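Homework help board

Subject: predicted structure for assignment chain

Our instructor gave us this sequence and asked us to write out the predicted structure in token form, then describe one feature. I got the tokens but I'm not sure how to describe them. Can anyone check?
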Amino acid sequence: MYRNNQQLITSDVHNFVLNHGALGDVITSLPAIIHARQIFSPDLTLRVWAPPWQIDLIKHLLAPYGEFDVRSVLDFPREASARKDWDGGPVSLNTAVMSSHTRCRVHMVDYAFNFLINAQPESMHERSYPTEAPVGKPALDLYDSSQGYVVFPVGATSDNKLFKASVMAPVMQWCLDNDYAVVVVGTKVSHTHAETPNGMEPIVIREEVDKLPPELFKQCIDLREKTTLLQLRDLLGNATAVVGVDGGTLHLAGTTDVPIVFASGTTLPKHRYIARYGDPSYRIRYVGPRDLECTGCQSNWPLVTLDFRFCAYGDNACMDKLHPDDFINGIKELLNE
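My token output:
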């Protein structure tokens, strides 16, 4: 707000607390924080409180967009009572009180704009992921392939985001047959916690790598648990393509120019697209289940009464009905652009 060409600043610092620390949620929160930097005076310190294991990545992604003070969320006084006499400035969280608001029918960037800066993005450029940070060369000796490599993120935080071995295997085989190395990435341990009947507990990571045909997996490069987030971004950014189901690694890939095949069963692209350079179709193909009436359940449900981490029908049919040919065709189309 301005008067006499002078911006009104009511505090010297504003705190953006990335309370929901899942990687995808953190990345989709960054456009709102960047927008705040662009519209506020440099005299206002923007302090970003983030999970400590993500700090180096967040500093790197934000650096091209101005000055930010990034700190560990573990040092932030989370309880309002602990901030009673705190003089650290006002606080915005990138999440809502449980069961008071749903992210189901709202794009995650819009959700973050709403809760972090009390606004909605006015253009697709404002919704775009931060892509300006440089991508380095992979630090690891990855492959011996004349054409490049395709990255497969295999871990999932819920069964309805699980890249099934029956779907992955034919896509991996196609890559190998076409002289692309196959690189598998993921983690076995999640730092993110979620509410359960027993309180806040770490999210359990599931995967089906052990169900892949052994002879196929022997030909893959297994980099699970072998990269930092910054190294993973470099790996993604230099890939021929990244192929997987909605999850943090695909959103991290969205901070680079890499072609992405993005699959989802519970959400529709209109609520989970990755916009880059103002274009939600930039170097990306969206894949969904075939012949399944309840596809996009999370995007279509208008109430807050269901926890979409769990299939309402109990069978997670959407992951079984993803078809390998749709992934392969997506890769072909992207490589021919």
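Reply (TA_rk): Your tokens look well-formed. For the description, you could write something like this. The mean pLDDT is 91. That's the kind of observation they're looking for.
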